[in-house]
Amino acid sequence: MIEKIRRILKDHGRLAKEVESLPEDADLYQAGMTSHASVNVMLALEGEFDIEFPDHMLKRSVFESIAAMRDAVQQLTQA
Fold it and tell me: For the residues 45-63, what does the mean pLDDT come to?
């Protein structure tokens, strides 16, 4: 799952740093991701994992790091 998230970030995150070199808990906004790019990442995650983020999960902290996205996707795929 982490590799899929990294690929999505590489394709849609518009990061200033190479996503492969970022730790899972790195702040992606500090690495250059904008709020607009985070929406594209969210849409790509929904398509990749066949999920839909509910309104209560549409907040910065859910998309702040690779680990946070992994946790959110796991929560939604187990529901």
Answer: 97
- Does pLDDT of 79 surpass 90? no
Question: Residue 13 is part of a domain; what is its CATH number?
Answer: 1.10.1200.10
Decide: 47 and 70 in contact? Cβ < 8 Å: no
CA 52 → CA 11, 18, 21, 56, 62, distances in Å?
Answer: 19, 27, 28, 11, 13
Number of domains composing the chain: 1
Is the confidence at residue 3, as pLDDT, over 90? yes
31-58 CB burial, b ≥16 within 10 A, e <16? bebeeebbebbbebbeeebebebeeeee
- Write down the pTM of the prediction: 0.94
